Amino acid sequence: EKVLRGMAVSSTSFLVRVSAGSASVTGNFYPRPPAVVPKGFALVCEQQHWDTASTWRQLTDQRRPWFGADSGAYIYWNKSDNSWWIDDASGGGVYIAQSLSEVPPVHGWSLLQGAQLPLPEVRIEPTRQSL
């Protein structure tokens, strides 16, 4: 378990709620198993002719969960740049925040090309959703 703002959490006890200027990445994001590849990530790999599984292993630590929304948008930690990425359903990066935290950070987000202001408001909220 990790402690977040005085609250003990495990990867199955919270969701990430995002509101942002880019509507495509606004919503509730639920923890997903780190070995499962987001569909949008796989789509980008296929378009670039990269091996999806090996690229996912190369960019993630296979320990932190990623977080998926019903829209297909997702949030994941990229070990190559020590940053959390918020990507839309097509796999395109929208916002990024450099952080070594175990969960997406509340502050520190930056716009990527094509993203809209305001910057994301990220909240971590308790839930009973499980991996």
Describe the structure.
The chain is α+β, with helices and mostly antiparallel strands and 131 residues long. The chain is 14% helix and 34% strand. It is built from two helices and ten strands. It has helices at residues 39-48, 52-59, and strands at residues 2-4, 7-9, 14-19, 27-32, 66-68, 74-78, 83-87, 93-98, 110-111, 121-126. The strands form two sheets. It has an eight-stranded antiparallel β-sheet with strand order 9-8-7-6-5-4-3-10, with no helix packed on it. Strand 1 and strand 2 form a beta hairpin. The longest helix has 10 residues, at 39-48. The radius of gyration is 14 Å and the shape is globular. The two termini are 15 Å apart. Residues 1-11 have low confidence and may be disordered.
Outline: globular
Question: Would you tell me the structural class of the helices and strands?
Answer: alpha+beta
Averaged pLDDT, please? 89
Strand order of the largest sheet: 9-8-7-6-5-4-3-10
β content, as a range? 25-35%
Gyration radius, in Å = 14 Å
Distance between the termini: 15 Å
SSE succession? EEEEHHEEEEEE
Low-confidence stretches: 1-11
Protein topology:
Elements: E1 2-4, E2 7-9, E3 14-19, E4 27-32, H1 39-48, H2 52-59, E5 66-68, E6 74-78, E7 83-87, E8 93-98, E9 110-111, E10 121-126
Antiparallel strand pairs: 1-2, 3-4, 3-10, 4-5, 5-6, 6-7, 7-8, 8-9
Helix pairs in contact: 1-2
